[in-house]
């Protein structure tokens, strides 16, 4: 079987020679290898691998159930590595910019997830630290936010915090 991370390559590798050994416990030698293996883990539904290869921050929590739901609802088409900065075997940090191509099974719409990911080597093991999704924007409110001390919008004459804001 062609490795899912190699489907957009001109000379693709087999899964058993590419991401398979990394999924089975072999350490990724570079940040790019880990990125490819993480993509392949989504395509092959090996979600525990995703969880085990990332650094989680105090308030963060990775939901394997949500990741599995997304993985199962997608037809994975391939990954394109746009650029890498550092992330070699000799480095402690690396950046990988990539495009993950997939199709939403429900809508049959082809989609591209563009991200720049930061990787860090911890105790000799490459781990995903954080990603910046291209084009992601914060949610913009249509109306201004109601402050706790503003008059309540229901017209009661009370402060919002003492009325509907409770």
Compact overview of the structure:
The chain has 166 residues and is an alpha+beta fold.
Could you explain how this protein is built, in words?
19% of the residues lie in helices and 28% in strands. The model is unreliable at 137-142 (pLDDT under 50). By secondary structure, the protein is an alpha+beta fold. A hairpin with a 2-residue loop joins strand 3 and strand 4. The protein has two domains: 4-135, Nuclear Transport Factor 2, Chain: A; 138-166, no CATH class. The protein starts with 19 loop residues before the first helix and ends in a 33-residue tail after the last strand.
Distance from N terminus to C terminus (CA atoms, Å) equals 57 Å
The global form is: elongated
How many separate domains? Answer: 2
Overall mean confidence score, pLDDT: 89
CATH architecture of the largest domain: Roll
Structural class by helix and strand composition: alpha+beta
Q: Order of strands in the sheet with the most strands?
A: 1-2-3-4
Largest sheet: 4 strands, antiparallel
**CATH topology heading of the largest domain:** Nuclear Transport Factor 2, Chain: A
Strand percent estimate: 25-35%
Stretches where pLDDT is under 50 for at least 5 consecutive residues are 137-142
The number of helices is 4
Q: Compute the gyration radius: what is it?
A: 21 Å
Helix content: 10-25%
The CATH class label of the largest domain is: Alpha Beta
Order of helices and strands: HHHHEEEE
Give a count of the beta strands, DSSP E runs of length 2 or more: 4
């Amino acid at each position: 079987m062609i490795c899912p991370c190699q489907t957009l390559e001109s000379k693709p590798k087999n899964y058993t020679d590419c991401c398979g050994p990394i999924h089975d416990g072999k350490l990724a030698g570079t940040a790019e290898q880990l990125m490819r293996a993480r993509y392949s883990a989504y395509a092959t539904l090996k979600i525990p691998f995703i969880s085990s290869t990332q650094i989680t921050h105090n308030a963060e929590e990775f939901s394997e159930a949500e990741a599995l739901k997304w993985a199962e609802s997608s037809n994975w088409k391939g990954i394109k590595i746009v650029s890498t900065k550092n992330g070699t075997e000799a480095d402690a940090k690396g950046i990988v910019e990539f495009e993950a191509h997939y199709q939403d099974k429900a809508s049959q719409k082809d989609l591209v997830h563009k991200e720049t990911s930061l990787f860090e080597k911890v105790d000799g093991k490459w781990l995903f630290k954080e990603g910046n999704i291209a084009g992601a924007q914060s949610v913009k409110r249509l109306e201004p936010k109601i402050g706790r001390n503003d008059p309540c919008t229901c017209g009661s004459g009370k402060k919002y915090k003492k009325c509907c804001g409770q």
